[in-house]
Structure formats: structure tokens, C-alpha cells
Amino acid sequence: AGLDLTLSPDAINALVMHQAPGDGNPTPGTAAFIETHMGDRLAVVHDPDFSINAALPWGAVDLKQDAIQSLKYVREQQPAYRLILNDGSELTVILQGGEMKIKTIRFGTAQIYPQAISCLLQIEKPVLPEVKAGTQEQPEKTPAEGGEDVAEKLKKKVSLKYEEVPFAEVLNDLRDKSGVKMIMDSKSLTKKDIEKREITLEVSDMPVEKAITWISELSDVKFKLVGDKVVFYNPDVEKEEGPNDDEVEVGIESPHLILAADNIMVGAFAVDELKIVSVSGAMPVKTDMIARIDRCEDDDAEIWPFVIDLREGGSLKGRFAEKVIRVNACGGSFYIPVEHLVSYISPMAGEKRGGKQKEDVEDEVAEDGGNKAKPGSVLKIEAKANQIKANRRVVH
User: Fold this and answer.
1) How much is the pTM?
2) CA torsion, points 329, 334, 338, 342, in degrees to nearest 10?
3) For 177-191, what is each residue's pLDDT tens digit?
4) Pair 45, 123: CB distance under 8 Å
């Protein structure tokens, strides 16, 4: 049975447990992990009564456990938390409230102050539409190393036909046809920059991997395989600013606002109409007729700061008569100052923007395996790359 030894605790230098088959996996019933600033890590169960109060720059909200994907303490600019919700919202918040109860796997009900939490990561996520705005970076892999499922999908042959189709719509279509997840790096490719890229391409029975290569060339971006996702990025920006862990998945189907200080709020306007002041005067516009709102970047931006795309075509350049706009999001209602608004994208925002001048840049593509780009293919971009520069001064 082995040798029996009697040891004094003072004589023990280290005591190491044997490895068990389930090591590294969450204990059955674990819904989330909570780490404290003291270094404790607690496995907690699903608790419908769990609620944590978070202060946003525009008000406070009580969040249930099911709503939270992750919560992490950061010290950028000021001590706060970076909150990612299951609906795709990404917000900088401050935790409020007194001592709260959490139900743990090993220690039963424990009490903890919200401010003592360093990180909360949910394991069991409810099934929701794919509206995630950030993903966790995995070690970069080549297409051949991306796993058998992805490798097979990349070999699948597809037929594509695009004529001046926006880059994001092309990725959505290719994703649907191939089953391969398409991701756009949010740091090197802004949404405003993405929509300037339009693709004209016609191919038949082409492997998905080769089609991705062509689309990458035509849109003047690069791609890499990260886990089971193809990530598109601008190599010039990545080289200047370094790699980015935040990636935006194409195909967001919920209305959402991009706000100052890198906040993304999934929600919609809570008012029926907004009054837009343009060069032709003031006019009310129904909010359900708005497909997209973006910050203007030309010389008139100080006077007419926004470009508003209308769902039935056309666009307006102007400013809002309102100083604040009410928004329903995160289970609450918030009044958002207009100066904090960077962009707004509605569920059906796929229409081509009208009336916007772009510079045509011809891009010749050589024949390859009997497939070639349609004669006269052009990649429509602006000569000057623009990035949204919003007011990042947000007061909690």
C-alpha cells in the first residue's frame, strides 16, 4: 500500500495534488468565474437573483447574470470596468452598490462588494443572435492549421458575382455560402473606412480560400486565420499601432450606437422622429427611416457634423436640433448627448449610400485558373483614409 511517513507541517516545502482527468475544466454547474483584487477565484452557479449595478456615462443600469459576457477591471484613463454584454454592447462602467450575495460552487453563498471584483467571465451563455463586437484573440494560425472543419470549409468551391458591392456585404455573402466566420479588425478597419471599399468580381467554382485572397486584394486589405475565423485587417495601421484584440464580426443584425470613448451600445432610438438641420433648413425625419448615421469628416464638419443615410435612398448632411437623444438599450432608457454620438447603424443598414463622391481606382487582376475579375473592375476608395475622431471626453 506504500510507505507511511509521519511529517511535521514545518518539514513540508510543497504539497502538490495528483492530476485528475477533469482538471482544467469547469466544475459541473459552474456558470461563471469571479476573480477578486485579492487573487481569489470563485466558481459561481447560475443565479436568477444575481444583479449588479453599473454606472454608465449616461445613467445607471441593473444587470442580471445572463446579460453579462465578461466584466474586467481596467486602469486606462481612470479606474473603471470594461463590460461586454451578450447582446454585443461594449461599455466602460463603474460598479456601484453595497455588499452583494453570490452563490458559489464550493463555498455556498458568499458576500462580496462589487468594487472587490477584478474580473467576471461567464461560461454558460444564453443563445442569442450573433452580434458580438469583440472576440478573444487566439494564437495566429495559417489556413492549414485552423482545424479540420475550417480547412474543409476553405476548400469548398463557390460561385460569386459582385458589381460594386460594399466590402461588408461581400463578406456577409461569402460567410453565408462558405460557413466560415468573417471578422473585421476594428482598430485598423473603421466602419467608415470599410464602407468605402466596393468590390466587382465574378468567379465560378473557386475554392473559398482563393476567393478570400481575391477579395482581400481587391479591397486592399490583408487577412489571417485566427482560430476558426478569418480576420481582415489593414497592415499599415496594424504596423503603426500594433495588434488589436478587439474585432468586429460582420453581420450585426441589431440596431446599435457607437459612442465616444470606444463605447458600443446595442439599442435603438426611443423617439419617433429627430429634427435635422441642413443647408436647406430644418426638417423632421422618422427614426425608422434612418439607415445609418456617421460623423462627417470634411471641411464642413464643424457646421454640418453628421451624414444621415435614409432607408429609401439618399442622404442628408447636417446637425440635430436636439442636444440629447433618448435611447432604449441594456434594459433601460438613456439620454445620450449628441456630441457623444459617433455612429448609429440600424438592423437593415445595408443600403448603398447615395450622393457620396468616391475616387475610382482601377485594380487589374490577372487570370487565375480560368476565373478572372470582370473587365473594368474597380475598387472604389477615397484617396485619403479617414478615421472617426470623436470627442473622447466622457464624464461618469
Assistant:
1) 0.56
2) -30
3) 988 888 877 667 766
4) no
